[in-house]
Amino acid sequence: MSHHLWYRPRNADADGTGQANHKVSFSDSSKRDSSRPSASRTNSHASSPRLLSPRGDKDRDRPRSQQLWSDNRDNRVWQRVNRQSEALWQESPSVLSPNSPQPRPFLIYHDSFLNLLGPSPTLSLLISDPRAPYFHEAGVFHPATNTLFITSNQIPDTSPDAVTTSNKTILITKIEFFSPTDFTRDKVRCPERNYMANGGTNFRDGIILCAQGSLREPSGLIYMEAKRPHKTTTLLNNYHGRPFNSPNDVVVHSDGSVWFTDPIYGYEQGFRPKPQLPQHVYRFDPSTGDIRVVADGFGRPNGICFAPDEETCYITDTDVIHGDGTKVHSRAATVYAYSVYWTNDQPYLTNRRIFAYADTGAPDGIKCDVYGNVYAGCGDGINVWNSGGMLVGKILIEGGCANFCFGRNGEMWCFGEHKLWRVKLADETKGALLGV
User: Fold this and answer.
1) 102 partner at 20 to 30 Å CA-CA among 37, 127, 168, 295?
2) How many CB atoms lie within 10 A of CB 368?
3) What is the SS3 assignment for 242?
């Protein structure tokens, strides 16, 4: 998205994190029917297993704020957070106040988060690269090639072509995994001009990238092949002749349509012309070429995803921080939920409501797991809400996390600008998008 879309979290101890000991190479490399689908994503109707009391039924009536854990709790990588009264925090030393230092990477706001974490959750640092913020957005895992694609934040560029992007560029990193800690790292060299790529998602045999454009190049949606030489094709670059602002994030519906957000961050950061469209959310049908607005009324529309059954669409608004770096805390840092309603075999969004408000920074990238829980990259890491909008847990990441993506069997990769983190949750905690 933009520079500094989140705030740094409160100081946190690094206990529970580790850095993998491995060698990494870095080199250059260069229809579905459009009628209404049935909601058939893998495991889309799975329900989260019920957590049993660790001490049996007799403890069910005990107030959760006073539950005590075994004497080896100091060895855990998670910590319970109590959100009731300061008096209870003082009475129970096993309970953590939200205002106290956060010593562990996994914070438990509700017992259901323990099911998602599994018995041995981990947070480990895969790559730390001080040269540039290579790990910022997109986050597309391509299962067929076991490859992860990530877009960088803006990097200084002194080449002649970069004058149209205010002497900035964005690079695409490709990481091919052979095991969780054994991989190669390459830079994708596209034959076309610099599109200032941002968000991305899986599409057919490759990926779609949001091309923010430049002062010369139009913005829109780009299809990139997952295999070398990573040939790209422009799917869309205008709304009935009017240029988009700077598309930010994208998701593909099971009917094959492509939904994306279009804030004005490119204009605010000096590499896009003055906006000629409001900050909309769009639906594009590649099979027919139909493009239409499905939502408006945002300060800065950003992340977008669907619930597993595709009956709810989640869209984040990061208006709290603008592209020029200004921060006004009275502006939105909000996740909105919409109902997906069908008429004449076409979907539209209705029943807009506030789903959640991020307490630290702003919710940028957003995704669901197969149980319908909602994950968002925020100023203190990954925040997790259940489908009712209750905050159930957090994965604390030093420096915050703009975006992330699910891999296989409870694996997540989280992007912290100069750092790439790996999170391992329960094997059953899979991303709804791929269900792997």
Assistant:
1) 127
2) 23
3) strand
